[in-house]
Amino acid sequence: MADSFKIDFQAHGSIGTGDLIVFVGENLKPTPAVAKLIGPKAVELIARAAAAENFKGKAKSAMVIVAPSAVAVDRLVVIGAGGEKDRANVDWAQLGGLVASKVNGKSAVAVLDLPGVEITPDDAADVALGAQLRRYSFDRYKTKKDEAKTNGAGGKLSLSVADPTAVKKAYKAREGVAGGITIARDLVNEPPNVLGPREFAAKAEALSKLGVEVEILDEKAMQKLGMRALLGVGQGSTRGSRVAIMRWNGGKATQKPIAFIGKGVVFDSGGISLKPGQGMEDMKGDMAGAACVVGLMHALASRKAKANVVGAIGLVENMPDGSAQRPGDIVTTMSGQTIEIINTDAEGRLVLADVLWYVQDRFKPKFMIDLATLTGAILVALAQEYAGLFSNNDELAQRITAAGQETGERVWRMPLGPEFDKMIDSKFADMKNSSGRHGGSSTAAALLQRFVNDVPWAHLDIAGTAMGSPQNEINKGWSSGWGVRLLDRLVRDHYEG
Q1: Where are the strands (E) in 333-410, listed by range?
Q2: 395 is in an annotated binding site
Q3: Spatial separation of the C-alpha atoms in residues 406 and 408, rounded to whole Å
Q4: For the segment 336-383, what is each residue's pLDDT rounded down to a tens digit?
Q5: How far apart are CA 317 and CA 351, in angstroms?
Q6: Could you report the per-residue pLDDT of 428-486, keeping only the tens digit for each?
């Protein structure tokens, strides 16, 4: 959840009396406009303080001058913009996170004027987005709050920009994205005793306030549809499984919808193929794909995206009681295809198999993208730096890759092919849910591909990026909300209007 941190936009000229944040290059000089704003004595003070502090103006470095005599503010915060190469490749959201980290709970003005850089309204809006994301924390279950965080809570950041009206317009869409990321982060961070399939489905239903049509399938409805692969995963839990279908109809009635599908295993013990105890607590995050889809639907509805979008999430708990499915069981999917259970811990693909088939059969989408914390093998291949991308469509894969580069939520395309498909053939059923360690991410994707029925499709394996995420300037928590920015950008760039 975010604190009461506020952001607004103002024209260049006013610096206030709280904190003043300015940027300098490696020559330690601000732009002429900023130099005029703060005055020659302040420019000279920056140079003297930099020499004393060994501050070189490198990218993402910062220096704080408390109670500067040369300008009537509480603190003068100087952030390095780096050299020419750094300034040509600014990640504006990350920069916004850095700026927010320097706000100490009072009012602050950040003058968005970097040496040698032309800042567009979209760039400035991304700075504001990054600032909001940096302020996220999840401490609702702490009875004693972190004093350092509590004392720094709240506050107001005013971004001084060339055209406040244009930046406000650009930021309006970013607010929905920030809200969607916060929802996704909160869902992944929630403890599993609080967030079961039914409670998760209720979070999806809350999107109806934004005009999203939501339909919840219970176990009786899924039995009638024949979703026995999904139901098999959840049969060992006392908490019933659910599927949530979310629809945003912002496009023309004649337009085919685009579809996003999320794996929502609210807790994954591994089932009968029980996981090791060490680190099992992290398996509350095995629903990060579903969390992303809910956050994405919030973002799209909040900014009234001009697209028809379907979001579908399969919500189950994988537990090992006397009713749980066993290795050796064979389940019949909604498609009629059969799957032999080799490993009950390879459960996410069973959930997705039925939901993918349901979505392509009912909605006839233009494309489908699924997100899942599917395999540990993807961490071996890509660590936590990239999500694995598998696709049967080159154009869709290229567009996802480009959106990843633009947002910093990067993907790396991995191989799909007949060799991997052959590896999941079973002696006793149409396929098996695990073929062993070798090529584990590709064989999991190959199984999913058997349920997309030639619809353009991409699978994002986010096991490395969505939970226990790498720390950066816009994420200091355990859950990153990965995928909301990526897919919102994909829709915005290619599938609206």
Answers
A1: 338-340, 368-372, 387-391
A2: no
A3: 6
A4: 999 999 999 999 999 999 999 999 999 999 999 999 999 999 999 999
A5: 11
A6: 999 999 999 999 999 999 999 999 999 999 999 999 999 988 899 999 999 999 999 99
DSSP assignment string, 267-292: EE--TTSPPPSTTGGGGGGTTHHHHH
CA distance 442 to 457: 15
| CA gap 433, 418 in Å, rounded | 16
Query: Of 156, 275, 366, 413, which residue is the catalytic one?
Result: 275
The share of the chain scoring above pLDDT 70, in percent, equals 97
Start-end of H helices in 54-90: 84-88
- Known binding residue 122? Answer is no
Catalytic residue among 349, 432, 450, 492: 349
Q: Is 190 annotated for ligand binding? A: no
Contact 225, 458 (CB under 8 A): no
Kindly report the pTM of this predicted structure: 0.96
Give how far Cα 281 sits from Cα of 39, 278, 380, 477, Å. Answer: 55, 8, 20, 16
Is 275 an annotated catalytic residue? yes
309 close to 250: Cβ distance less than 8 angstroms: yes
Q: Are strands 368-372 and 387-391 parallel, antiparallel or unpaired?
A: unpaired
Give the three-state DSSP class for 74: coil
For residue 395, the SS3 value is helix
Whether residue 349 lies in the annotated active site: yes
